[in-house]
Structure formats: structure tokens, C-alpha cells
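Suppose a colleague, Dr. K., hands you the sequence of a protein chain of 138 amino acids and asks what its three-dimensional shape might be. Before reaching for any lab equipment, you can write down a predicted structure in C-alpha cell form. Begin with the sequence itself:
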Amino acid sequence: MVRLKLRLLGLVTGVNLALGILVWLFLFVLWPHHYFKWYPSIPAYFWLMGVIMIFALNRRKSQDPNYVVTAYMVIRMTKLLSSLVFLWLYTALVHEYIYAFGLTLMLFYFIHLAIESYVFYLYEKRRMIRKKGKENRQ
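The predicted structure, expressed as C-alpha cells, is then:
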């Protein structure tokens, strides 16, 4: 359990670092007029949300593995709503480069959605294989 949690934390950190640096280079080098000083808050936000998701699903899994899918969908909805609140707060408080911030936030959201969905698919596939293996042994 701890090994899986550490691997997922490493994956979330690695993806956020790689994606954050890649988008930063793109914004800073290719489109310097679209770079905004609050850019580092986006990768930090998605890293924090990824860590929360790992711990919440891990806690839920230890209680009852049959509810993991429901918990995953609730967390996805929470992440969507908190992303909208994050965008609203930025718009209300900062007032600069709103278009660039919104597009960058959407880019990160959809990339993370794809990666998390794929990882969850692999996790569920592995869980089902283990479940069938346990049923065959009995």
C-alpha cells in the first residue's frame, strides 16, 4: 500500500514538473507576451489536487474497494468545481492575463484528466485481475 502511494506521488510530482516546465518554456520563450506571473500557481494547484486525490482514494480503497469508482468520480467533480473556483478567484483578485490564465488552467485540467483516467483504468484493470485470481484459487 505504501509502495503504491509513493509510486503515485512520484508520478504526480514528475508529471507536474515535466508539464510545468514544458508549458513555462512555451509561455516564456515562444509567447513571452502571454506569460503571467501567477503561472507557477497552476502546476502547484494541480500537484496539490493530485496529492489530495491519491490520499482520498487510498483511504477509500482501504475501507471498501467496491466504492473506489464512486469516490473517484466524486473527486473528479470536486476537482472540476475547485478549478472553477480557482479561476474565479484569480479573475476577481488579480485581473491580469485572464485569457492566458484560463487557457493554461484548461490545458492543465485536460492533460491531468487524461493521465488520471488512464492511471485509474490501469489500477482498476489490475484490481479486477487480482480479484479473478483470488476467486480462481478458492
